[in-house]
Amino acid sequence: MEKIVNGFKPSGGKHCITTALKQVFEYYNYPLTEEMIFGIGSGLSFVYVNLKKSPMVSGRTKPFEFEKKLGERLDIEIKCKSSSKYKTAFDKTLKLLDDNNPVLIYVDMPYLDYLNLGEDNHFGGHAVVIFGYDNEAEKFYISDRDNSDNTIRTPNGYISKDYHLVDYKKVEKARSSNHRPFPSNNKYLSIKFNGYEKITSPIIFSAIKETCDNMLNAPAKLLGLNGIDKFSKEILKWSKFDKEKLKTAGITNYFQINADGGTGGGIFRKMYGNFLIQASEIIGNEKIKQLGSSYIEISKRWDAVGDLMWKLSETGANQLLQEMSDIIKEIHIKETTVLTKLQEIINLK
User: Is 264 found in the same domain as 170?
Assistant: First the structure.
């Protein structure tokens, strides 16, 4: 038996969870841009994590916290559900698909062959949409960020397919993985649009206020603007790494910063800048539009760091570290300025 959800249209995008949510929202006739979804969920953040294999930065809030906040602001029910047994999750998925509901699931990326990742590159917070199945071939229809008009880069080349047919066994491994830092553990989202709130000025102001507060008043040195400042200093300590660890740090952080890694460009700063520009049209505030443009310019400086990370992954040359540190210090000053101005505007409301 084969089943494809009636009327579902796979589409590519910038960031995994916003791409997946965009497709689900579109399917149920509640269209929102990825940037608006990202901004309303207060997705922008920063954290520096000093992992044993490689230090790593991230520019967005934790998986599942973002989705919860988005649901609260839009007054819709977004629940992250999971099961200790994969068979239960599998049967539930088929039932939802049979009822013409696309299923937004979380997967551990190395188990999806089309992403061309090494077996140790575990990240179970990756979001995709299952929109069909073929029981005879034992494959699921999966929509990821790539699409025929949206090519994305993987470590071993580019991919651009409207959808991927993935073996049941591969999906089982990807869904039931318990590898840290974000074990997928058969998680999926249940979304109910009863009570959906149209985007209004108060919703936008609330979302921006939370982002400003989290970035400007981060509770730890590794978070928010504190984390960016910390990163500018810690990266100089990478000179103690051997060449292979430097290369690993380079490729890891390239994909955490560059659009190729699903950040939308500039470690999510471009997405947030475009959110501010879109939001300014709703609330009628030209200053917020200007600050959105400023964030897009900041994203370009982050991309410059990403480009140097790529060079680091190829050469292991530690002389690149000082150049990156200098750019990150500059970014810290610019982000502080923009967020302070944003906070001042919001506090006047």
Answer: no
- Nearest of 151, 276, 159 to residue 208 by alpha carbon: 276
Kindly write down the DSSP assignment for every residue of 197-253, as one continuous string: PPP-HHHHHHHHHHHHHHHHT-SSTTBHHHHHHHHHHHHHHGGGS-HHHHHHHHHHH
Tell the residue number behind the tokens 């049941």, with chain if given. 168
Write out the H or E segment, with its range, that includes residue 2: strand 2-4
347 residue type, one letter = N
Q: Which residues of the chain have pLDDT under 70?
A: 349
Residue whose token pair is 């990807």: 174
> Of 169, 192, 215, which marks where a domain is finished?
192
What pLDDT sits at residue 182? Answer: 80
Task: Please count the other Cβ atoms lying within 10 Å of the Cβ belonging to residue 247.
Answer: 18
Based on the fold, state whether residues 10 and 144 are members of the same structural domain.
yes
Res 144: pLDDT:
96
Distance between CA atoms of residues 340 and 26, nearest Å: 34
DSSP state of 196: P
**Rounded to an integer, what distance in angstroms lies between the CA atom of residue 337 and that of residue 237?**
27
Residue 223 phi/psi, 5-degree rounding, is -115, 155
Report how far Cα 226 is from the mean position of its chain's Cα atoms: 21
Domain final residue, candidates 167, 192, 217: 192
Tens-digit pLDDT profile for residues 79-133: 999 988 999 999 999 999 999 999 999 999 999 999 987 777 788 889 999 999 9
Same domain, yes or no: 179 and 231 = no
Residues 218 and 184 in one domain: no
CATH code (residue 219): 1.20.120
Q: Quick check: 175 and 86 in contact, CB under 8 A? A: yes
R_g of the chain computed on alpha carbons: 20
Structural domain harbouring 267: 201-347
State the CB neighbour count (10 A cutoff) for residue 286. 8
Give the per-residue pLDDT at 349.
67
* Number of separate helices (H) and strands (E) present in the chain: 11, 11
Cα–Cα distance, 274 to 271 (Å, whole number): 5
User: Is the CA virtual torsion 17, 22, 23, 28 positive or negative?
Assistant: positive
